Amino acid sequence: MSQPLLSDDDLQRLSEFLYRQTGMLFGPAKRYYIERRVADRMAAAGAGGFGAYFAVLRADAREREALINAFTVNETYFYREEHQLACLSGELLPDLIRGRTPGDKVRIWSAPCSTGEEAYSIAIWLLENWRMVDAYNVEIIGSDIDTRALEDARAGFYGERALSRLPEALKGAYFETAKRHHRWRIIEDLRESVTFTPANLVDAASLAAQGLFDVIFCRNVLIYFDDASRLTAANNLYDRLAAGGYLCLGHTESMNRISERFVTRRFADAIVYQRPEQGP
Ligand SMILES: C[S@@+](CC[C@H](N)C(=O)[O-])C[C@H]1O[C@@H](n2cnc3c(N)ncnc32)[C@H](O)[C@@H]1O
Question: What are 64-80's pLDDT values in tens digits?
Answer without folding.
Answer: 999 999 999 999 999 99
